[in-house]
Amino acid sequence: MSMNTTMNQTDAIEALYAALDSLLAATPTETGALVFTHCVYPSRVQVRVRVEVLENGGFLISDEALGLGEVLSMGPETQKPGYYLAEQASRYGLKYSRGAVMVEVDSAAKVPGAIMLVANASKDGVLRTSLAFEPRDIASFDYQFDRFVRDRYKDKFRPGVISGASGMQRKFRYIHQRGNIKDVRLNEPIVLVEPLMPGQMSIAVKTQAHRDIARLKIPNLWQCLVVDRDVDDWTRSDIALLEQSDLQWMEFPKLERELPRLVA
Hints:
By secondary structure, this protein is an alpha+beta fold. It has helices at 7-20, 66-74, 83-91, 111-132, 141-153, 200-214, 236-243, 252-262, and strands at 25-29, 32-40, 46-53, 59-62, 95-97, 100-105, 158-163, 169-176, 190-195, 221-227, 249-251. The two termini are 22 Å apart.
């Protein structure tokens, strides 16, 4: 237990473990628990929920924006990828904030029920999105990269938002930082990777967002665009446009070799 944990939190954590015992598959953490529920996203990934004990002895239950990560992995053509997650959160009496479905309760006895509400809202929001938009091409590198990250690195990467040098908030699907990320911490090491598809529009959109972040000159930021010319049909003009961005980019096989040393 951390030296910074208050007596209220210590008592609440003990009450939490007692409430979860034999009911759900829970993994203890320093400030609560990770719970693997019986809910499953359309991708067949199990819905995981984090329970965090607050300083006042209450409990925050959240899907940690994993539902949003599932939505983004589908690649829906929309400016509001979290629309149906927010809709389902509201339907279940929950909050949707910064991409996460969440709720706060005041007693350990309410935690198991809150976990199932969050898990179901997250799952249903992803399902509603999958029904509203055409699924992404499973033969594309974008899809294959997403499966690679999920299979190889489990929960090491997650979606997040970084405000660029322009002041615009940029959303990214694959951000890695040590510990339990709620907000991206610019004063700590960041790994930011993004699969890139050929085509003038795709390249322009992705490189613009990444240049906006690069201009911040964040210390300890490892930023890279990833391509796979064995899967996608890259032309010379596509590669030339990418090289003009002055951003780091590499072929997928090289990234496979690089990531293990970057992601603990």
